[in-house]
């Protein structure tokens, strides 16, 4: 039954992605706000399906920690779900994505139009410099630059070391860094298949002000994200191990 519900949701999510992509492609010729609006309508449709097909909803906590200007947002990453959700949750995000994603039909076209930041992970120092330059520019435009500092999706309970690029962004942007904890991996698989019905919680935490040295920043960010994530997992009944 879980597999069947996942398949139905995949058809729902990707089917409507094609529909909205076809409808919205002409809007790519207009201002960025047009693309953002149709994307948010698409996401409302996705959330509707997620609720009624999978039995999964979500809640956002700690919005008071979002600053009014530019910021660096560093989030835990457990599922593809959050790469979509932050486009609705944050006021005007610029998400750091793998360069290969911008070549995907519809998704990639909108990612470029929305001013996200792509990085070629095999591009070495030149690619890193470009990412830092683009992120600093988005920060000056009062946008929220979102990155998943662990570099890949992780399973609930995992807390790998953070990739060093996050420290470069923190220094070059000179903006507050807002850590984010979440528990999406308890309820959704890597590509949004169903793991367990329930409530996804996304929690913005106290910002880390600019000015820390690299070791202090990395230690503080890692601790805040993972302590808060562990607390969300401990409070989630669906995350509890099965009794034997």
Spell out the blueprint of helices and strands.
Elements: H1 2-24, H2 32-54, E1 56-61, E2 71-75, H3 81-89, E3 93-98, H4 107-113, E4 117-119, H5 124-140, E5 144-147, H6 165-173, E6 177-182, H7 184-187, E7 198-204, H8 214-235
Parallel strand pairs: 1-7, 2-5, 2-6, 3-4, 3-5
Antiparallel strand pairs: 6-7
Helix pairs in contact: 1-2, 2-3, 5-6
Structural notes for this entry:
- The chain is an alpha/beta fold.
- Helices cover 47% and strands 15% of the residues.
- It has 8 helices and 7 strands.
- The protein has helices at 2-24, 32-54, 81-89, 107-113, 124-140, 165-173, 184-187, 214-235; strands spanning 56-61, 71-75, 93-98, 117-119, 144-147, 177-182, 198-204.
- A 7-stranded mixed beta sheet has the order 1-7-6-2-5-3-4, sandwiched between helices.
- Helix 1 runs antiparallel to helix 2 (32-54) and helix 5 (124-140) packs parallel to helix 6 (165-173).
- The longest helix has 23 residues, at 2-24.
- The chain is globular.
- The model has no long low-confidence stretch (mean pLDDT 92).
